[in-house]
Amino acid sequence: MIRILENKNVGYYFILEAQSGQTLLKSINFTNKVAVQKAIDSLHNLSFNRNHFERKTNNTGQFFFNLNDDTAKLIGTSQLYDSEMGMENGIKNLTNRIILLKEENNL
Question: What are the residues whose beta carbons fall under 8 Å from the beta carbon of 45, sequence distance 6 or more?
Answer without folding.
Answer: 70
